Every structure is written in structure tokens, then in C-alpha cells.
Amino acid sequence: MSDTPNCTGCFLVASPYLADGHFFRAVVFIVRHTSEGAFGVVINRVGEQRFSEVVEMSDPTWQKSSSKSSSKIKSSKLVDTASDLNLNEASFANPSSSSNDQLARSDVYRDWIHIGGPVDGPLLALHNIAGIGEPCGIDDESDSHGTQAVVNDHPAESFGSMSIQWADVPAWMTADEDHLRLLSRREDAKLRFIVGYSGWGAGQLDDELEAGGWLVTPAEAESIFGNEDDVWEKLVKRCGHAILKDLRPDLAMPAESESFDPGMN
After folding, report:
1. How many CB atoms lie within 10 A of CB 25?
2. What does the sequence similarity comment in the record state about its family (predicted)?
3. How far is CA 7 from CA 4, 39, 184, 193, 225, in A?
4. Dist CA 83 CA 119 (whole Å)
5. Which residue has the higher pLDDT, 195 or 168?
6. How many CB atoms lie within 10 A of CB 116?
7. Are 57 and 181 in contact (CB under 8 A)?
8. Is 106 a residue whose pLDDT tops 50?
9. Dist CA 163 CA 148 (whole Å)
10. pLDDT for the residue numbered 130
């Protein structure tokens, strides 16, 4: 890789000047970034279908995430790819549509299937339950992330009470159907169902970073699973604060929730 940063475990925050309509005001969580390319998922694009609409839960204890959803369950098998949900390029590139605005304001974020990018990919889940699937944001070329055994009140498997949790991991990811069903019933889980992904070939993301197309900031669970309506604005402000802090270490930065004082210019 070049002198550009390794973005594994970081957010790519679309620059206000990024010309690619696919990523207008997008926040991409980079799961892996190596010399061979990069893979990530957009966290602030909500689709038009619920998880409960595309899977039939055979477990009689299953409870839908929202009592407001009265749609008929469509399939007994989870969708395999983004194309199965008829998620086309237009629906991804136009996040300001009225239907998406309405869905994004819903109080049931966890049941909506989000659109992770323009590349066709399987239905998966980003979540915070250690031991289900794979940890995200681990730099294979670094030893900075150790492991530790922890006892969970709600283990990944009903017959176990011990799991391995990576230090400083913002999320876990799985595409396993049994895992998805399990997570959908875990009311304690922070969860995003996602279909499709964002991918870059060797050197492609590095070129975009050097061209100034993206702002980069460390990823954290609060932004991944929080309010997607304002996450782009929040992270743009965070990146702006970091840039100014590098230029003026003596400058007192306002909190992320506060605006800049024009007198500081």
C-alpha cells in the first residue's frame, strides 16, 4: 500500500464534493482494507423492506420487531443477494426520496434492511454480540487488537456461557442464516440488517483518498447503530474538528453537538 492510511475499522465519510452519486452523503464502515483492495458497507442507507418481510420465522416464540408491520411474510428462505430484493442503482443513489425519509425516521431501525452499497451481495447483519460471526475492523497486519475471554449474560449459543471478544471492535458481522434468525430475536442486540456492499480493487480506494474524495475517522458502535438521519453531518463535523486541531493545537474545539464560533476564523 502507499502512504495513504489503512482504513480498516474506520468510517469513510463522503466529501461534500464527492461526485459519485452512489455515495452522496454516505458513511461507509470499512471492514477490511489491504493491498488487494477494500470492502465495506454503507450504514446510512435504509431500504424499503423489513427483515420480517423476507423471512418466515418457524420458531413459535418469534416476535416481530414492530407491531406496526402487518405485511405478509413473503418467503421461507432468506434472500441470497441484493438483486433478490430488487434494490437497483436508482434506489441506492437517491437517499432523499420520500419513502426513504419516512423509513429512516421510523423508530424501528433494526428491522429495516439497509443498502450496503452498489455491489450485489448477500443479506448480512452488523451487530454487537461477541462470538456471532466475525469481528469487523481487525487489521490483520497489526497486533494492536488482542483477545480476551469474557462471560456473557446472553451467550451466542444457548449451551455456552463463554465467548471470545476482540478488543476495540466496533461491530461483528455474519451472513449465516441461523445467526440472522437468532439476532432478529435478540432484543438486547444492537443490529443492522444489510444487503449489498461497497468494494474497491487494488489501489482504487487509495487513489480516491489521495484525491480528497473521502474523510476518514475511526469507527465506533454509537455511530454504526445510532441515528442514521444525522450521522453524516455528525462525522463531517468530527473530521473538521480533527483537521483544525492538527492545524491549530492551541485552538479550543467545541463539542460535536455545538457549532463553530465565527469569531474563531
Report:
1. 17
2. Belongs to the UPF0301 (AlgH) family.
3. 9, 10, 29, 22, 19
4. 10
5. 195
6. 29
7. yes
8. no
9. 9
10. 86
Place 179 in a pLDDT band, splitting at 50, 70 and 90: very high
Q: Residue 162: how many CB atoms within 10 A of its CB?
A: 12
Assigned C-alpha cell, 230 = 444525522
For the chain, report the end-to-end CA distance as a whole number of angstroms: 37
Residue with cell 465495506: 40
Per-residue confidence (pLDDT) for residue 151, from 0 to 100 = 39
d(CA 244, CA 60): 55
- All three cell numbers of 40, joined, read 465495506
Q: Which residues lie closer than 8 Å to 92 by C-beta, 6 or more apart?
A: 22, 45, 115, 117, 118, 196
Which pLDDT value is given to residue 250?
A: 64
Taking the C-alpha atoms of residue 261 and residue 264, their distance in angstroms, rounded to an integer, is 6
- Rounded CA-CA distance 112/52 in Å is 8
The amino acid at residue 41 is V
Q: How far apart are CA 84 and CA 69, in angstroms?
A: 21
pLDDT for position 14 = 95
| Among the listed residues 141, 127, 133, 103, the one whose alpha carbon sits nearest the alpha carbon of residue 224 | 127
**Please, where are the H alpha helices in 4-97?**
51-54, 89-93
Element (H, E) at 149: strand 147-151
Q: Give φ, ψ of 139 to 5 degrees.
A: -80, 105
Give the pLDDT band (50/70/90) at residue 10: very high
